[in-house]
Amino acid sequence: MESKTMARSILITGGGSGIGRATAQLFAARGWRIGLADVDAAGLAATAALLPAGAETFVMDVRDRDGWARTLADFCGEGGALDMLFNNAGVPAGGPLAQTGGDEIDRVIAINLVGVIDGARLAYPYLARAKDACLLNTASAAGIYGGPGMAIYGATKAGVRSLTETLDAEWAADGIRVRALMPGFIETPLLNATLTGSNATVRERVTAAGLEFTPVEQVAEAAWAAAHGERLLWPVGKTARRLTFAARWLPGRLRAQMRRTGMR
Questions:
Q1: Between 240 and which of 33, 69, 153, 235 could a Cys-Cys bridge form, CB atoms 3.0 to 4.6 Å apart?
Q2: What PANTHER family does this protein's entry cite (predicted)?
Q3: Is 153 considered catalytic here?
Q4: pLDDT tens digits, residue range 5-31?
């Protein structure tokens, strides 16, 4: 198969909704060729229908290494290049660690962390061929500082942050910029997930805490800025920015606040 040489290309996991969909719309509007991967075939079709030139869609689970390899080869062409991989697919998780089952722990780690690692590893040769490429990972404000009820989710997102920092150093000589988004609570369907050990949804807990929801369009703009900017980590939304400030300048106060929250 010949290498595909067209407009600059981006492959987006979790492209069937939320941040992935908004990012696809923004990059498509700015002339990029779009590839979308997701487990949700209907969501993929809905996103592609919103794009002026459509998109190449791939029904794929990020836990499937063979699926990763097929998707990258099909989208980039054998021996081809990829300008940007947006490692965005993820699932929410919340609730006390002691009440979280082993299967749920394995699922969240496999999708949120191992899937990101595999995507980066398998996309590397395609990114390296582009000479001026970007690997963008979706981490989270939960990866800035751990909070009660976020043990597994926060651990995976802290891992994504660490991976980003590591690959930024490892891959700089290959002309690959590695970046991470660190959003707070984003207005997506994931907010409707129920917390472990509770009947409450993530949305209800965030609302009760008086925290804000950041529109997906703002995250998409941050993805564009991250892809073209020099900063390594990109907090998105008021909560993420406040947490970044507190973790750096007020760690003792932040720790005390988290301990109080965990005792409620």
A1: 235
A2: DEHYDROGENASE/REDUCTASE SDR FAMILY MEMBER 7B (PTHR44196), DEHYDROGENASE_REDUCTASE SDR FAMILY MEMBER 7B (PTHR44196:SF1)
A3: yes
A4: 468 999 999 999 999 999 999 999 999
